[in-house]
Amino acid sequence: MSFSFSDADIERIEEVLGVKAKKDETLARFELADKKSGRRITLEIHRIVKTQGLSSGESTSLVSVYAASSFLQLQGCTGFWGSKDLGEVIFVARSGETANGLVVEREAGCSIYANVDTNLLSTDFTLLAPELIMSSLALSITEDLFGDLG
């Protein structure tokens, strides 16, 4: 699925994270800091990255997080979900039976969930092994982004 972040999408993410992006035509950069915890991260959204030579298409969206001791990247972003009340944005890359999610928090926190079986997103969480609950619950709120893709 092809997805490109619009100006309205970037504005929504600014609203949720409480910080203005430094941006140009293809890049939006958010610098997040939380004084209480001392955490700092940088979120970069590449709206369009050319994928010449790949059979999957000509362009893709790319989301990266730079932190003091880690670098996280979600390639082929297919959508996002944001909640001002929760103070987080979940970026999703969904393909076939799997979903990958990158969660960015207003307080400069981040998590990544990789290769989550999409069937787990609509299951009864009380039936899951404890190790699967966090990823399934976090990504389940993005399920409506994809309509009948499941």
**Apparent shape:** globular
How many separate domains make up the residues? 1
Going by helix content, strand content and strand pairing, the class is: mainly beta
The SSE order reads HEEEEEEEEEH
Poorly predicted spans: none
User: What's the quaternary structure here?
Assistant: single chain
Termini gap: 13 Å
What portion of residues is helical? 10-25%
What Rg is obtained from the alpha carbons, in whole angstroms? 15 Å
Q: DSSP helix count?
A: 2
Describe this structure in words.
The protein contains two helices and nine strands, in the order H-E-E-E-E-E-E-E-E-E-H. Strand 8 (98-105) and strand 9 form a beta hairpin. The two termini are 13 Å apart. It has helices at residues 7-17, 130-140, and strands at residues 22-23, 27-34, 39-50, 59-67, 71-75, 79-83, 88-95, 98-105, 110-117. The chain has one domain. The longest helix is centred in the N-terminal third of the chain and has 11 residues, at 7-17. The radius of gyration is 15 Å and the shape is globular. It is 15% helix and 43% strand. It has 150 residues and is mostly beta strands.
Which short descriptors sum up this protein?
150 residues; mainly beta; 5-stranded antiparallel sheet; 4-stranded antiparallel sheet; 2 helices; 9 strands; 15% helix
Fold blueprint:
Blueprint: H1 7-17, E1 22-23, E2 27-34, E3 39-50, E4 59-67, E5 71-75, E6 79-83, E7 88-95, E8 98-105, E9 110-117, H2 130-140
